[in-house]
């Protein structure tokens, strides 16, 4: 690692700890030549995951795309950005645990809905209504009924 100030190649690690989302390692370093201190991040590089869309097209997995969908469904709801990012982390972990470099888009949607259902029921219904493309009120009502039945059972 070279020093960003003097460009010397000898720097020592002073402190290492996982980042808040536990996906990176944060390292405090000090240049042995000029004593300048700086922070670096180390991240595991995963192979790319391809998402197979309903029409058969493939595109690279995109966390931001999922986040935009969750943000829309949780608009004006008490769901924090940290919670949304945690949902995406759980979904990505489930996808990587499949052990495949391709995943169907409908499976991603199901994973997101599983997590949203436990966080905020309104956000879940909003996400499900777009994701499942409710065609009429009966489909919407059945989904809502399932959520209400879950509440009555105390799950």
Provide an overview of this structure:
This protein is α+β, with helices and mostly antiparallel strands and 155 residues long. The chain folds into 2 domains: 11-43; 50-153, no CATH class. Helices cover 46% and strands 21% of the residues. The protein has 5 helices and 6 strands; from the N terminus they run E-E-E-E-E-H-H-E-H-H-H. It has helices spanning 63-73, 81-97, 105-119, 121-131, 137-153; strands spanning 11-18, 24-31, 37-43, 50-52, 58-60, 102-104. Strands 1-2-3 form a 3-stranded antiparallel sheet, with no helix packed on it.
Question: First CA to last CA: what distance?
Answer: 51 Å
Q: What's the average pLDDT?
A: 88
Number of beta strands: 6
Major sheet attributes: 3 strands, antiparallel
Q: How do the strands of the widest beta sheet line up side by side?
A: 1-2-3
Query: What is the helix/strand order?
Result: EEEEEHHEHHH
The number of helices is 5
Structural class: alpha+beta
Radius of gyration: 21 Å
The figure for the number of domains is 2
Helix content: 40-55%
Tell me what portion of residues adopts beta-strand conformation: 15-25%
Any idea what the shape is?
elongated
Which parts are unreliable, with pLDDT below 50 for 5 consecutive residues or more? none
